[in-house]
Write the structure tokens for this entry.
Amino acid sequence: MDVIKEAIAAQYATCEKHHTRLMSKLWEVEGINWWKRFLKCTVAALWEEHRVAQSGLQVWLDFADKQISRDSASTRKSCHKEQETFGSAQMDLGNLEELAVARGITDIDFVQEDGVLDEDSNDDSTMTDDDDLGEY
């Protein structure tokens, strides 16, 4: 039973890690969208104020478009990958929880009232290569 509790705790931590990464990527996308708006406003102001400098402005626009497109595509791809990883981690956690329920383990068995994992168990909870996982 300790093995399942440890697996659930580890999977929960993995889910939280991927959730944090996903949220970070979503904020990156949000930031990119705001920078796009800022660049759009900046471009409008530059067109108004610097009609004479058309060629210099064109160079800046080309660079900004390429940079934003590259960063946006990369961040969106990374965000999608984190969403998939997070979903997979959540599914694994659900499967482990179902296994725990099937074996009669409840939340009370491995989580204290304050939400911290129960560490009252002995130090033998760390698995070695010789440990037996039991029948599955």
In short: Confidence is low (pLDDT under 50) at residues 123-136. The chain has three helices and no strands.
